[in-house]
Amino acid sequence: MKFGIKHINRVSVTATVTLTAGAVLAGSAFASTAHAATPPAPKIVAKGGFLMNDGTGKTLFTKSADTRRATGSTTKIMTALVVLSQKNVNLKSKVTIQKAYSDYIVSKNASSARLIVGDKVTVGQLLYGLMLPSGCDAAYALADKFGSGSTRAARVKSFIGKMNSTAKSLKLKNTRFDSFDGIGNGNNYSTPRDLTKIASQAMKNSTFRSVVKTKSTKQKVTTKSGGYRYMSWTNTNKLLGSYSGATGVKTGSGPTAKYCLVFAATRKGKTVIGTVLTSTSEANRTADAKKMMDYGFKI
C-alpha cells in the first residue's frame, strides 16, 4: 500500500513538472508571438511623414508630421478637390486651351500635359491631365475655368482663394496655397498630416478615386478645326502596379519641396493613406511610402 502511494506521488510530481514546463514554453511562445505582432516603426529618408487608417482616422506613423514644408505638385490634390466640390460640376463641359497656359509652362519650365492651344478639352479630361502627368497647364486651365472674375488674373486669384477656404473648412491650420499647381511665390506650404487629410477628403469623391488610380489613359479631344486628336497621359505615381492594393494619390517635386508623395492603398478592407515630404529622390520617396504602408497594414 505504501509503495502504491509513493508511486502515485511520483507520477503526480512528474505530471506537475511536465505541465509547468509546458505552460512556461507556451507562455514563452505566446510572448514571442505578441512581440512579433508589433513591428518597429519604419525609418524613412523623407524629412516629414504621416500615415493614418483612412477608415478610422487613427494615426499610425508620424515624423515631423506638423512641420510646414513646400508641397510641390501634391498641391494639385487640392486643385482637383476644389473643382470636384463645385456645385453641379459638369465633367463634360469643354474648356478651350489658351496660349497663356502654354506660355506659363514655358516660363516656369513646369511639368506639362502637353495641351495644345485651341483644343477643346473637357473638365474630366483636364483632371486626368492634372493628376497623371502633373500638368501645370491643366491646373491653369481649371483655375481659369472655376475661378470668378472678369480677367484671367482675377479668376486665378479667386480659385486660389477657394483652395484656402477649403483648407480652412477642413480645419487645417498649417496649410496655405498661393498657387494652383505648387509653383508658389514663397507662401505655398502644408504638412504631412494636413496633406493626408486633404487627400482623404478628395478620395471620398468617386471621380477623384477613378482618376488617381489610373496608370495611363488615352483621351480624345476636339481640335481647333473641329477634328480630333488623342492625348496620352501616364501616371507619375510608381506605386500603381508595383505595390499591392495601391490606389493613388499624387507625386510632387521642386527645388525646395525636393521629392514628395501622397499615397494610399487598400488590403483586406483596410485602407491606409499618408504623405512623405522632402525626400531625396523619386526612388526614396516611393521606398518611404512602401515602408510606411507595410507598417500600417501590420499594426
Automatic annotation (TrEMBL):
Keywords: Carboxypeptidase, Cell shape, Cell wall biogenesis/degradation, Hydrolase, Peptidoglycan synthesis, Protease, Signal
SUPFAM superfamilies, A to Z: beta-lactamase/transpeptidase-like (SSF56601)
Active site: S73, K76, S134
Domain Peptidase S11 D-alanyl-D-alanine carboxypeptidase A N-terminal: 38-278
Signal peptide residue numbers: 1-36
One GO BP: cell wall organization
Protein residues bound to substrate: K250
GO molecular function ontology, one term from the record: serine-type D-Ala-D-Ala carboxypeptidase activity
Family note: Belongs to the peptidase S11 family.
Protein name: D-alanyl-D-alanine carboxypeptidase
Species assigned in the record: Streptomyces filamentosus NRRL 15998
